[in-house]
Amino acid sequence: MPCRHESELIQLVEEAKKVTGEGKIADYIPALGKADPDDLSVAIYHIDNTCMAAGDIEKKFTLQSISKVLSLALVLIDHGEEYVFDKVGMEPTGDPFNSIVKLELLNPSKPLNPMINAGALAVTNMIKGQNSEEKVSRLLSFIRDLANSPNVAVCEETARSEFETAWLNRSMCYFLKQHSIIEGDVEELMDVYTKQCSIEMHSLDLAKIGAVLAMDGLHPETGRQLIPKDIARLCKTFMVTCGMYNASGEFAIKIGIPAKSGVSGGIIGLVPNGFGIGIFGPSLNNKGNSIAGIKLLELLSKKYSLSIF
Ligand SMILES: NC(=O)CC[C@H](N)C(=O)O
């Protein structure tokens, strides 16, 4: 199995860190603007439960769009494929994650996939629960099980910061409500969505979640099948086709592993039947992906021939 020595990982982090200055931190969510652009951490969690990490691994970060894969898994478990894909499609868009343009161009106006904001909002709207508190708590406990860590929690400050500024996401919600893609109170949905995006953890927790996906939903530590195999397969396919926003094609060609990024600078990745990868590097490239994180994955993939293709 490749990449077994922490010293190799430390070297790759040093190399990748050189590009942090070429990117920019996302500050459209004001709380994210406080991150240190020079941070970079990576953790690898093998399915035999050995792990290693390098860089600023003590730093926590919020999942942001990475959470979209996990909320999708939960609603698929809750409702099944037919129900979910009646409201959200399976095609990549080629547009930025927060684009609204295709919603009006398409008929019926259902979001193209669950990894763009419009699709993720529709998915979050399907999380079962009597009220927003119960919905957040169900998702959080699912994610705690995946990370096998009770310390994973919502960063209330980031959630509030996004809730107070998420005008574009609110507009999409009203549009989707008009077209019967979502139902219920938009403010309640925004409350759940912003808390979902603000679930916070370390790179090692994220790598462990990657390892669960690498094992088709089976947790390597607890032996519990947390996600049914067919749903895990579906989530991984979305990661490949839509996980890196409108850079997913280039990422598949250059790196070739299922991965999902978030504007906090987090990236989850996985090598099937091998290991999960958790990365945090808040300086972003112009597509909104961690600039040093992508560099690091490129170096890792080349060095150990990780592409699944
Ligand atoms: N790309 C992202 O990580 C976006 C997530 C963010 N919470 C948003 O909706 O804008």
Automatic annotation (TrEMBL):
Pfam families documented for this protein: Glutaminase
Gene Ontology BP terms: glutamate biosynthetic process; L-glutamine catabolic process
InterPro entries xrefs: Beta-lactam/transpept-like, Glutaminase
Gene coding for it: glsA
Reactions catalysed: L-glutamine + H2O = L-glutamate + NH4(+)
SUPFAM superfamilies in the record: beta-lactamase/transpeptidase-like
Residues binding substrate, per UniProt: S65, N117, E162, N169, Y193, Y245, V263
Self-association and partners: Homotetramer.
Superkingdom in the source lineage: Bacteria
EC number, UniProt record: 3.5.1.2
Secretion signal span: none
UniProt keyword annotations, A-Z: Acetylation, Hydrolase
Keyword Acetylation: yes
Similarity comment: Belongs to the glutaminase family.
Name of the protein this chain belongs to: Glutaminase
Provenance organism: Metabacillus lacus
Keyword Repressor set for record: no
Gene3D superfamilies from the UniProt entry: 1.10.1500.10, DD-peptidase/beta-lactamase superfamily (3.40.710.10)
GO terms of molecular function: glutaminase activity
